[in-house]
Amino acid sequence: MRNPQLNEHGELQHLLSIEGLPREIITHIMDTASSFLEVSDREVKKVPLLRGKSVFNLFFENSTRTRTTFEIAATRLSADVVNLDVRTSSTSKGESLLDTIDNLAAMHADMFVVRHAQSGAPYMIASHVGPDINVINAGDGRHAHPTQGLLDMYTIRHFKKDFSNLTVAVVGDILHSRVARSDIHALTSLGVPEVRAIGPLTLLPPGLEQMGVRVFTDMREGLKGVDVIMMLRLQNERMRGALLPSAQEFFKHYGLTAEKLALAKPDAIVMHPGPMNRGVEIESAVADGTQSVILKQVTFGIAVRMAVMSILAGGR
Amino acid sequence: MKITISNGRLVDVAAGLDRIGHLHVDGGRVAAIDAQPSGFVAERVIDASGLVVCPGLIDLSARLREPGFEYKATLESEMQAALAGGVTSLVCPPDTDPVLDEPGLVEMLKHRARSLDQAHLYPLGALTVGLKGEVLTEMAELAEAGCVGFSQANEALVDTQVMARAMQYARSFGFTVWLRPQDAFLARGGVAHSGPVSGRLGLSGVPVSAETVALHTIFELIRSNGCRVHLCRLSSAAGVELVRLAKREGLPVTADVAVHHLHLTDVDIGYFDTSCRVEPPFRSQRDREALGAALADGTIDAVCSDHTPVDDDAKLLPFGEAEPGVTGLELLLPLALSWAQRAGVPMATAIARMTTDAARIAGCEGGSLAVGSIADICLFDPQAHWVVSPATLRSQGHHTPFAQRELQGRVRATLVGGRVAFG
Fold this sequence. Notes:
- Chain A has eleven helices and nine strands.
- By secondary structure, chain A is of the alpha/beta class.
- In chain A, the strands form two sheets. Chain A has a five-stranded parallel beta sheet with strand order 7-6-5-8-9.
- In chain A, α1 packs across α11 and α5 packs across α11.
- Chain A starts with 22 loop residues before the first helix and ends with a helix.
- Chain B is α/β, with parallel strands linked by helices.
- In chain B, a hairpin with a 2-residue loop joins β18 and β19.
- In chain B, α6 runs parallel beside α7.
- Chains A and B meet through α4 of A and α5 of B.
């Protein structure tokens, strides 16, 4: 079975998941992102790489923040951007997902940026569209959020230079997190020797060990000596369904505080994909502290998304 | 009509047959084996050289989708598929629309099937009204209308008091209750086996404990109520082990497995292939091997297709939204044969699990080549290779994880009640 995100030459045709992505491609995306970083500092924040191309943002699930970063990235590449909040348009009138895709493809879209509540939905779209359309997964269910994973790797590389001697901890609701899955695949692909998952057993998916991850239920134990702490957002609805008793108890045991942060290496960096729940998974003093690189992640996110889009557009 | 099937390899474990011979059919029954009865003059002779001649297959679970889901399949299309697959008897779950919970509906369905005059149809009645798990159906009336057992199909029976009473009531009349062991709470929201694959793909999991907890509950209720229970679609090694212990204890239970579970695991989901969205979900390789071993040693009594035609609109969706089910009537025989070959199980055993053993569970005619048996007969070429091409399947359901696979064993003719219905 060929990895559906690569074409027959092994080049990136779609970006659907970090799993199965060759290390060279991940590195190439990061290197390309570096060259785009300075574009954002220019007076005229534009390069003409995607001039004349149409990028369709298809958000079947709401997310103003992620959509905006893709929109900015596409605009800086001079693409035409069409934002479709699909939830409130055709699909709510009963049109099937693939009908919607066919219609948009007929409008000569060049690229679909897809967010969907169901794991795997971008795979279905990618296998349905013709070879002249690229699909970028902007988050599907609990499965993957590859651009977030890539920008997280970019951030780590920026601050730590080398992946080969790092210990990285991913903390919180890993079960429901597409970000965590993408980060874990990226970290192991880039050769990080120790990836840790920290959380209560109700929020850890089965099979983490097979993904090359050490599991900790005790956050203090798990944070000892780590170089990077990747916090995850805790959705409020997790209190339902008997996964957690309360946000307070979660914060007490799995929230990142200055006191727990002190267990990590002194130069450890703190990351969060946003939006943050201050006082639930992270304390404000840490989120705004000197070790936090959370806003850097946002800045790098634009450059990484520009890199992905330009590589996809140039690949054909 | 008098028919002689000559020179075929007659295979029927119950009749002690596995040799080349001739079979003579008269008046819809097997009249004789080898030497033809005096005065018998065949009106038609079928040369079965190189073919296996076995009882027509009895499929313990085939959804024909009538009434209510005619856009997914019809009796006409699915009966054709059955005969092309060598299946002469179909046990149909009650999850139609409306649900088979009233004698009138069962009579209508039986009437439709009789007028088509193809495979025999044996409906399962709903165990509870509307399959809602609350109120018992008129089981005695439904049995009179033609139901061979009572089932919840894939619907949950959450209320254990209702389950206990349904068993007691069924036992009063000697009926068998057909249950798919799955705890509704543990399975809630799950679309794939709970394990490394679902964890990686971000799909909600159905843990093995959903099956084992349900089995423990069912066995405990059998211990106190004594009802005969047929366990539908086992999926796990742990479940198989519990069934083995229950049988050793002497509990009146039988069990089946869907033929695709003998071949596939959760890894086959690959990149969210919705043709692998089935209920119960494909589990690990260890589970698959345990299911095969249990079918070989008889812990699992029968193998069925769990045929479920699903239309494109319901299948071409993201994995978690896709309707579970695969087409199977035309694949049951070759998939069972290839399982037997791979597992080193005699072909005759594999055939028995779809014929003799299935007839015993359904309490229906057929499943035998013995003289006097109904002449439901399947003739197949065990050497014929063919590639599964969904578009050419007779079933209206075209979704199968075996598309483009090469299979061995192809039905050449099917007789129902002594009449050549296919081939």
